[in-house]
Design a protein that fits this description.
Layout (H helix, E strand, L loop, with lengths): L2 H17 L7 H18 L4 H17 L6 H18 L6 H21 L10
């Protein structure tokens, strides 16, 4: 697993999760704002901007769905699952869009099903 993809997905999830708790931000606005900032920062670095900004954006999908369902630990597990699935699915699906949506959906579903089946749940902050 590419460590930088995992880190950017974690940053995307956590930044959206925490920003969505502010009064003026909901999940969609938090995702949009953090994605624009991340793209700006990544464009200054000598990395594959397209790949890592999409990984960050996928992490924001996790952060958007997580405030009502997940706590801090579950958010991290879901983000790491997203990074692994995303890296596996990008070469198999045409374009980033399919891999992005499927990876985010599956990672949130796996963690949510784990919680429903009795996995320990981290406390929600708020």
């Amino acid at each position: 697993m590419d460590l930088f993809i995992a880190i950017t997905a974690l940053l995307g999830a956590y930044s959206t999760y925490f920003l969505a708790h502010h009064n003026r931000f909901d999940g969609i606005r938090a995702s949009a704002a953090t994605s624009i900032i991340a793209f700006s920062v990544l464009s200054l670095l000598s990395v594959d901007v397209e790949l890592y900004s999409v990984a960050f954006f996928g992490g924001t999908f996790i952060g958007m769905s997580a405030p009502k369902r997940f706590g801090i630990f579950t958010l991290a597990i879901s983000s790491l699952l997203f990074a692994m699935l995303f890296e596996y699915l990008v070469p198999r699906l045409h374009g980033y869009g399919g891999a992005l949506g499927v990876s985010a959906f599956l990672s949130v579903c796996v963690c949510h099903i784990g919680i429903l089946l009795g996995a320990p749940r981290s406390k929600k902050s708020n």
